[in-house]
Write a structure and sequence with these properties.
Distance between the termini: 60 Å
Strand order of the largest sheet: 5-6-4-7
CATH topology of the largest domain: Translation Initiation Factor IF3
Mean pLDDT: 83
Order of helices and strands: EEHEEHEEHEHEE
Helix content: 25-40%
Radius of gyration: 36 Å
CATH superfamily of the largest domain: Protein of unknown function (DUF541), domain 1
Strand content: 35-45%
Number of strands: 9
Low-confidence stretches: 1-11, 15-20, 213-225
Largest sheet: 4 strands, antiparallel
Oligomer: single chain
Structural class: alpha+beta
Number of helices: 4
CATH architecture of the largest domain: 2-Layer Sandwich
Length: 252
């Protein structure tokens, strides 16, 4: 028999199709029943919170050094070593222990120029750079360290960073503020939605944000009129921050 509908011919179903349909029906019913019986997760509110604390730095890192140029690498290195020795002696004379003075970078690089006539790279000389890092727990020594380097032949101040040695207590305070901030946001959101928050379902503490050092660059004094004036420094305040992500159960 052919059944026609909307001017289309529909072929009669085979016995195999009836059998497959009969087998699939119970499976579909079971799947639907399983979905209906699965417990639905409770309504949730997901928020993030951030807390930060301002602390006074108690440690300084000063990076100073010498850069020289000469026709040969040997001459540039010899001149650099001579002046760097004087710089280190002046820094140690301030009472800085040798253990707090570390060579941070030493490099020898050719000074190159492209010759248009010969179409070749020409080495005109060599540049030697030597940078040392000096650490001190006395913030007030940062300026004298820079002065000691510049007045003894140094011509590079790569950076001045103010750090915090013990951040544990400040991190705990910042974490408390972050969680409190997240809870307040969740409470406000729940109230706006006509309900309230119940228990905390999840709390993730993100990596602590290290206080950003305040990098200070200094210029070589050369022969300026105020070359005898001490280098002024101001450590300011460091910010220690932490963020958290939370999930709270929402109830009406």
């Amino acid at each position: 028999m052919i059944i026609r509908s909307s001017n289309r011919a529909v072929r009669p179903l085979t016995a195999a199709a009836f059998v497959l349909g009969a087998l699939a029906a119970p499976a579909l019913a079971t799947h639907a029943a399983a979905q209906m019986s699965m417990p639905q997760p409770p309504p949730q509110i997901v928020v993030t919170g951030r807390g930060e604390v301002q602390v006074a730095p108690d440690r300084a890192q000063v990076q100073v050094g010498m850069e020289t140029q000469a026709k040969t690498a040997a001459i540039a290195s010899q001149e650099n070593n001579k002046k760097q020795t004087a710089i280190l002696a002046a820094i140690r004379a301030l009472g800085i222990p040798a253990a707090q003075i570390q060579t941070l970078n030493y490099s020898v690089m050719p000074i190159q120029r492209y010759d248009e006539k010969t179409q070749r790279v020409v080495i005109e000389g060599y540049r030697v750079s030597n940078i040392v890092q000096v650490e001190t727990d006395k913030i007030e020594q940062a300026g004298p360290i820079i002065d000691a380097a510049l007045t003894n032949g140094g011509n590079r101040v790569a950076g001045l960073d103010f750090l915090v040695k013990d951040r544990a207590k400040a991190q705990e305070t910042a974490l408390t503020k972050a969680v409190e901030s997240a809870r307040r946001q969740a409470e406000v959101a729940a109230k706006a939605a006509g309900g309230q928050i119940a228990e905390l379902l999840e709390l993730n503490i993100n990596e602590y944000e290290r206080p950003q050092p305040r990098a200070v660059m200094a210029m070589a004094k050369m022969e300026m009129a105020d070359a005898s004036a001490p280098t002024p420094v101001s450590e300011g305040m460091a910010t220690i921050a932490v963020s958290v992500s939370t999930r709270w159960r929402f109830t009406k």
